[in-house]
Design a protein that fits this description.
The protein is built from 5 helices and 5 strands. The protein is an alpha/beta fold and 160 residues long. Strand 1, helix 3 and strand 2 form a beta-alpha-beta unit. Helix 2 crosses helix 3. It is globular.
């Protein structure tokens, strides 16, 4: 078992290098996915709108305030070189979204911050992670009813 751990670490590191290299390839950064398809769910429509906008507007990051991670799952299906940050208080969701392409979990509890300063608090958190800088455009998605899984119904473009 002692020899197994270093080998497992090397295997995971090699897989990570392959995934990062593949995601940088041109064919994985531009999407024409589902251009002629109708959407079934509101969070799916918001996710598709966010990704289309991000790919055509010069956005630095996408921030999804999420309970279940479903919006970030929809987003991960669209090729883009733009990182998607899943801000959630739910540890299970953070673990799940690590498996989604281009999605990075960040612990964040939207209930604690002042609702009037939510965007400011989120941008401060993103700056802390060095994901955005002054003047960067950020797409922000969330549900109007906080704490409701699958309730994403809002997309907003903000400046850091």
């Amino acid at each position: 078992l002692t020899g197994f751990l270093p080998t497992a670490v090397k295997v995971v590191q090699a897989m990570a290098r392959v995934c990062v290299g593949a995601e940088k390839h041109r064919s994985t950064t531009i999407s024409s996915h589902r251009l002629e398809t109708s959407f079934e769910y509101v969070d799916e429509a918001i996710a598709m709108a966010a990704m289309y906008t991000a790919n055509h507007l010069g956005v630095k990051a996408i921030v999804a305030l999420t309970e279940s991670g479903s919006t970030t799952l929809w987003m991960s299906r669209i090729r883009s070189g733009i990182p998607v940050f899943a801000l959630t208080r739910n540890e299970t969701t953070r673990r799940k979204v690590t498996l989604y392409r281009g999605v990075y979990p960040i612990p964040f509890d939207p209930v604690r911050p002042d609702p009037d300063k939510l965007e400011e608090d989120i941008l401060e958190e993103m700056r802390r992670y060095r994901a955005v800088g002054p003047g960067d455009r950020v797409i922000f998605t969330r549900g109007e009813l906080q704490g409701v899984a699958g309730g994403t119904n809002t997309m907003k473009i903000i400046s850091a």
